[in-house]
Amino acid sequence: MEPFLGRDGFGNPSSLHSEGQRAKRALDEARAVVAESIGAQFSEINFNSGGTEADNAALFGVTLANRRRGEHFVTTQIEHEAVLHTARFLETIGFEATYLAPDAQGLVTASQVLEAIRTTTTLVSVMHANNEIGTVQPIAEIGGALRGHNTYFHSDAVQTYGVYPLNVHELGVDLLTVSAHKIYGPKGVGALYVRDGIPIEPLLHGGGQERERRAGTENVAAIAGFGEAVRLMLIERETTAKQMERQRDLLIGMIRERIPGAALNGHQAQRLPGNVHFSFPDIDAESLLVSLDLTGVAASSGSACTAGSIEPSHVLTAIGAASEARGAALRLTLGRETTDEEIRETVEILTRLITRLTRV
Fold this sequence. Notes:
GO terms for molecular function: cysteine desulfurase activity; iron-sulfur cluster binding; metal ion binding. By secondary structure, the chain is of the alpha/beta class. It has two domains: 16-232, Aspartate Aminotransferase, domain 2 (3-Layer(aba) Sandwich), CATH 3.40.640; 237-359, Aspartate Aminotransferase, domain 1 (Alpha-Beta Complex), CATH 3.90.1150. The chain contains eleven helices and ten strands.
């Protein structure tokens, strides 16, 4: 008699073999839809715990695997901390980094990248869109400029994955970071696209999971949820992006109309559909954030990873918008369930608070 190994969801005896088959099928289905969503091959998708791990894996993986060829890499001053902190650690173990300075709207250019690369440059990492000020970088232009150069190109596309059609070949990237929670999927799961043939040192060593690029038992439930979120995202993305873009422009226009001196940070047009980031002169940042929180308005001075912080962010510092004279910086983000009424109510509250704090 076959040994009893548990029961499936229908009360029938199950086996480790059938459980393994179901897990593999779930992983394969999720991997296939994630690959389809960015124009990649099935074998090029590597699941992990999210954007931070994917960024770490890209930087560590490429620089360490190609160290004999060179120890220089290029990134920007306004990357997510997952890239910047990894870059700084790599510098402590002998690598050399060049940090490109953006312009006042947060843009870097392909010519800047080309000027920075050397014969010893093994990796360029430029985020697709900034998570604080919303500026969208010319990734396809940078990718095209890097063709023919002996260096790999990585982009953190966590912010753009759910709102723009992405194709790794059109973008010209060799590695791409995406995350589930930005498309309303589970937290704690993401993926790194690695073009087939690229030498990459695993961040985690152990078993042979994820084609030996990421050891450890996969979080099958979270990955299956990621796959379902991607399927829904592909259906809803265009409609959602148009709605968010319209509401973003409505929010920007109302703030500019109601609050004199409000300065929009980031690119005026090349920005994420759901991102609004303003500076308010002569307003105390802590007082504004606390007051908004007490009224039920969720806001931050920078990224979600630094929510609650009143210190000028590295992004605002890099674009020259973090001086004391600029006052409070405020990031408001829109989602697919945001309503026009909520936008109007937020502007009313913000206007009232700015007026009160100006008098203090």
